[in-house]
Amino acid sequence: MKKNGVLLTTCLSSLVFYSAHAAPVPAKTSPHGDTAQHRTSRTAPRKNPARKSGTPEATVSNKAESIVVLGSGASRETQTLSHLALQEVAPGTSPLKTLSKLPGVMFTSSDPLGAYEWSQQIIIRGFDQSRLGFTMDGIPLGNLAYGNDNGLSIGRALQTENNGPATLAQGAGSVGVAASNDLGGALEFTSIDPTTKYGVDVAGTVGSYGTWRTFARVNSGTLPGGGRLYVSYDYQDANKWKGDGIQQQQQANAKFIQPLGEKVKLTLFGDYSQRAENDYQDLSLQLIRTRGYNVDNITNDYGLAKQIARAYQNGTAFPKGITNQDQSYYNSAGLRQDALGYGRLDFDITSRLKGYATVYGHTNTGEGIYATPYEATPDSLGGSPLSVRTTEYDIHREGFIGGLTYKIAHHTINGGFWFENNDFEQARRFYPLSESGYTGSSVHWFRNNPFATQWQSAFNTKTYQFHLQDTWQITPAFKLNYGFKSLVVDNHARQLEGNYMGTPVANTYAGGSITSANGFLPQLGGNYRINRHNEIFADFARNMAAFDNSTTGATSPFAMTTAAYAAAKNSLHPEMSYSEEIGYRYHDHRIQASLTGYYIEFENRLASISPVSSGTNVQGYASILSNVGGVTARGIDAAFNYHFTDNWSIYASYAYNQSTYDDNLTTGGVTYATKGKSVVAMPRNLANVQLSYDDGSIWGNVGMQYQGCRTYTYTNDQWIKPNDIFNLNVGYRFHSHNWVLHGLDAQINVTNLFDKRYVATVGSTGFAVSDPTGSLQTLQAGAPRMVFFTLRKHFF
Fold first, then answer.
1. Which helix (H) or strand (E) holds 285?
2. How far is Cα 658 from Cα 673, in angstroms, rounded to an integer?
3. Could you give phi then psi for residue 752, rounded to 5 degrees?
4. Given CA atoms 222, 158, 36, 100 in this order, what sign does their dihedral have?
5. Given 149, 377, 393, 447, which is the most exposed site by the fewest CB atoms within 10 A?
6. Strand 624-627 and strand 606-609: pairing?
């Protein structure tokens, strides 16, 4: 349900807890100075160097490319998924879903590809996406919140076919990661490079519920001036698996690499995407018990939607089978349009000194819409008991990232700077509906004719981050990383006047400015290689998350009224995390294994609370954003990757996380016993097992993902049952010299193989202190079994 943007802003992101560590980029030497060596123990063998016939040569490092790489040599827990692992799932699948096989990662979504953004939820060691760092080729993607005020999702930044290796650090990202909120880890995505040979790749996918997707990419090969270029485009369309509506996206990527002499390289990248998605209705435990998992919006029944609205507005009985006005909406949707680009120079100043400089820009226009029974259309504009309510977004941001790396003796010293200027506008508007409504299954923009603007706001955020780090190879076996970052984020808000049918309406939300700043956020880590197969590592990290800068953000001071902001401003502190971890890794030509234990303290947790009880709130006291305590987490992450024959391998991961609140919560004049209770949405147990086969032609894998019990209330009075979901991926690569079959491969992907009904996302509309009746609609149902078939063809 989107009627309140994020219902129950008692901290969707602030009472879900997050952690902090640092991770290297998976290369011999990362741009942040941390050295990582990656062994080639494989999840699947690679007899043929061209792992997929349609895969560009630049994406295949060698025929022993690892599917999962455990970060050998790193001083913190880190894993990397290869380009190949991200391609074995159904095209269009979010890489976030594929990454969920790594230890400690919980990802859920109510669509089979994990691309539906309203239900996307990724939690790592108890920290949800609003407190994780996300980058693509080093470019910040923001906090991945649904109503994102500072970025965009990886699925809108990069086509899945163009995903290169993706690296996860379960703690905090390295000190140079461009993120102002990475309390609990970082995910660093990369794009593949253009190939040196000319080629054309095309692919087509068909699947359940009318799914179809087309993709084409043209690689120029090496051009006369030495440059290389690719341009790609895809279009994807699917019906919802329940109810009426579509999930649709079109996207284009382009990447150009040009050497400028022997010591300088220029990289240019551009992305354009349009996404439109009709929503699935949020469910409650009560609805699931009484009506099942298939309750959804009533987009195909405008007459019933009008009856529900009139019953609510007139105080009369609801139609049969309808409990309240929020059970099923007529329609709701999310619309996003993005353009992202960057230019990067890499240069070798001397044999010891290297550097890079990147400039980037991003624009976004978005709407979250739903047909609301809470505001009728004026009679003069059509008189429907419904109107369309939008939350509208506009982002214009530009930034600079630069760094230098200097090697001297046994030291690799790295420093860098990140600056971003972000202008964000947000508004809540209402648009008229006639008695005949609008085409039920359509998703289209509402612009230029609102009859009411409830509020509109303009924000500016300036981010400054400096980092400095040294990697000291003290002995051939022992390496020490130590460094820090300084982070300053200045938020400014300006509230604009609203209107109703031309009559001015006062905007009661707060304006002003607030700064999040910390000059010393240290990271310290070490790695000791016992012998060629065994190593141990340990690290410590301290991190800060800047305040949100929006009218609807769960940790935004400007989501308060002017009076509440004035009362709270001087007492607010940014959220902080302190994390420690120690681990062990083993690696040889067939086995990779790791075991990590961690301890985390999360401080200055932010929540929106009411100062008085509802019964005594006769003066309408506004909720106040406050620091309400902390969270403590302890846990282990384990991963095992065994290539036990030339063609067979098994991968397994397990994570145990015990995250509990340190304090009781007082809101509405009532103190609730939350101390010692489990953090919402994060299960204590997560497990993955994947069995893989690959003989160079036939390949396949079957995997199981297990999620333990989760709660969506801070008092833990409601729990969601555990689930174990199986997925199957199989394919065949043709090696014929026949021009029709040459460069052809086919694959079948089956999601939710055993068609299990289960709750996927928990907390889609927020969390509650308690829900004794199980009536809070904040759950999303998991998709049933779905099958997808893909053909790829590489030409030339």
1. helix 285-291
2. 18
3. 50, 60
4. negative
5. 447
6. antiparallel
Res 70: pLDDT: 84
> Distance (Å, rounded) from C-alpha 329 to C-alpha 280?
10
Q: Do 384 and 375 contact (CB within 8 A), yes or no?
A: no
Please report the sign of the dihedral spanned by the C-alpha atoms of residue 749, residue 56, residue 204, residue 445.
positive
- The H or E element spanning position 292 is none
Judge whether 692 and 649 are in contact, CB under 8 Å. yes
Query: 316 burial class (0-12, 13-18, 19+ CB within 10 angstroms)?
Result: exposed
Cα gap 415→431, rounded to integer Å: 50
Q: How far apart are CA 297 and CA 326, in angstroms?
A: 10
Strands (E), 590-630: 591-603, 606-609, 624-627
Distance CA 649, CA 283 (A): 39
Question: Using an 8 Å Cβ cutoff, are 53 and 696 in contact?
Answer: no
The sheet with strand 121-124 has its strands ordered as 105-108, 121-124, 127-128
Contacts of 218 (CB under 8 A, 6+ apart): 199, 200, 230, 231, 232
The DSSP code sequence of 67-108 is SEEE-TT-SS-EEEE-HHHHHSS-TT--HHHHHTTSTTEEEE
Q: Do residues 731 and 737 lie in contact, with contact meaning Cβ atoms separated by under 8 Å?
A: no
Strand partners, 273: 251, 338
- Residue whose C-alpha is closest to residue 510's, from 457, 450, 474: 457
Higher pLDDT, 170 or 24: 170
3-class SS letters over 542-592 = EEEECCCCCCCCCCCHHHCEHHHHHHHHHHCCCEEEEEEEEEEEEECCCEE
Q: How many CB atoms lie within 10 A of CB 646?
A: 12
Residue 594 lies in a domain: yes
Within 377-477, strands assigned E span: 387-408, 411-431, 452-473
Beta bridge partners of 266: 258, 345
Q: Are 127 and 144 in contact (CB under 8 A)?
A: no
pLDDT digits (tens, 9 = 90+) for 63-86: 345 567 888 888 889 999 989 888
Residue with the larger pLDDT of the pair 194 and 63: 194
Q: How far apart are the first and last CA of the chain?
A: 49
Average pLDDT of 425-430?
96
Of all residues in the chain, what percent carry a pLDDT higher than 90? 79
Query: What is the C-alpha to C-alpha distance for residues 101 and 97, in angstroms, rounded to an integer?
Result: 8
Q: Does some domain include residue 520?
A: no
Q: Give per-residue pLDDT as tens, 123-134.
A: 999 898 999 999
For 757, what's the count of Cα atoms within 13 Å in the CB-facing half-sphere? 7
Tokens standing for 73?
């040599």
Write down the mean pLDDT value for the chain. Answer: 88
- The residue behind tokens 């978005």 is 366
Residue 493 falls inside a structural domain: no
The residue range of the domain holding 253 is 87-345+535-564+574-795
- Whether residue 741 lies inside any domain: the answer is yes
Phi, psi values for residue 626, rounded to 5°: -140, 155
Q: Is 59 helix (H, G, I), strand (E, B) or coil?
A: helix
Q: Helices marked H in 292-340 — which ranges?
A: 302-314
Closest CA to 397 of 463, 447, 345: 463
CATH of the domain at 275: 2.40.170
| Mean pLDDT (whole number) for 157-167 | 95
Would you give the distance in Å from CA 87 to the centre of its chain? Answer: 18
